[in-house]
Structures are given as structure tokens and as C-alpha cells.
Amino acid sequence: MLEPSNNDELPAIPGKRYFTIGEVSELCDVKPHVLRYWEQEFPQLKPVKRRGNRRYYQRQDVLTIRQIRSLLYEQGFTIGGARQQLSGDANSESATRYHQMIRQMRVELEEVLDALKA
């Protein structure tokens, strides 16, 4: 049974119990070294480790990784901000306000960069 993807550009998650780091890398469009780093930064990510310290991710891990990817790459959160969002500690109203401020700063900085190039 295939599950629809949360993000249109990401493939559907196959209906199997365990996924290797390579499979998760493809399913989430994130390099394996990034996944290993995120394991250190996000306590929610705890893949099962078996023979030879090989990682096996479960469906919930894949969904969590996709959520982390969205927070970092699409919504512009820092690692700390994404960690807070996942743990539910962040006040969503203030997080949204800060996110909007960051977007506005980006636009202004791009305008300054364009002016400097001219």
C-alpha cells in the first residue's frame, strides 16, 4: 500500500516496515550524511541499529525527516527553531512573526545585493 506524499515533489513512502539510510535519502531528497547529522540534532530521530551499526528507519522516522526537511529548507527555520517546533515548545504565533521578519530581511538583502551589482 502506497501512502500519498506530504510534499508533491517527494515520492510516496512504500508500504514496508524498515528503510535503509539510502532509501530514506531518496524518499526525503536529503543526503545520507545530513540524515546522520540530524540524528544528533533531533532527539525524535532514533533509527533502529542492527548488525554492523547499520541504520534502519521506520515509517514514522521518514515522516519526521520530511517534517524536519520542510521546516529547514522550505520554512526557513534554524536547527534550533526546527527542534523547538518539533517538540512543541515554540509559540506558533511568535514563530510565524519571526519567520515573516526573516523573509522580509531576505528580500531587502537581495535588493541591496542587486543594487551593488548594478
Automatic annotation (TrEMBL):
<dbReference type="Pfam" id="PF13411">
    <property type="entry name" value="MerR_1"/>
</dbReference>
<dbReference type="InterPro" id="IPR047057">
    <property type="entry name" value="MerR_fam"/>
</dbReference>
<feature type="domain" description="HTH merR-type">
    <location>
        <begin position="18"/>
        <end position="88"/>
    </location>
</feature>
<dbReference type="InterPro" id="IPR009061">
    <property type="entry name" value="DNA-bd_dom_put_sf"/>
</dbReference>
<protein>
    <submittedName>
        <fullName>Transcriptional regulator</fullName>
    </submittedName>
</protein>
<dbReference type="InterPro" id="IPR000551">
    <property type="entry name" value="MerR-type_HTH_dom"/>
</dbReference>
<keyword id="KW-0238">DNA-binding</keyword>
